[in-house]
Design a protein that fits this description.
Helices cover about 25% and strands about 25% of the residues. By secondary structure, it is α+β, with helices and mostly antiparallel strands. It has one domain. The protein is flat, with a radius of gyration of 13 Å.
């Protein structure tokens, strides 16, 4: 089965991690179904328990279809 539903993860403009990863850094994750992608999106969008209280993770999430 082709995985055609995706999530593009990138950094907001001016994010300090761009110094480490580059201005055009992005990662794309692909899923077989829209429902699977939407569940993963909700999970990725949550603040995970391993972050320190003072951490403010930033990322831009975008649902995509090929």
């Amino acid at each position: 089965m082709e995985k055609k539903y995706g999530i593009r993860i990138s950094l907001p403009s001016g994010d300090t991690f761009q110094r480490l990863l580059g201005d055009d850094w992005q990662r794309v994750r692909w899923y077989a179904t829209e429902a699977e992608r939407d569940r993963a999106y909700d999970d990725i969008a949550q603040r995970h328990m391993y972050y320190r209280r003072t951490d403010t993770p930033t990322q831009v999430l975008e649902k995509i279809i090929r």
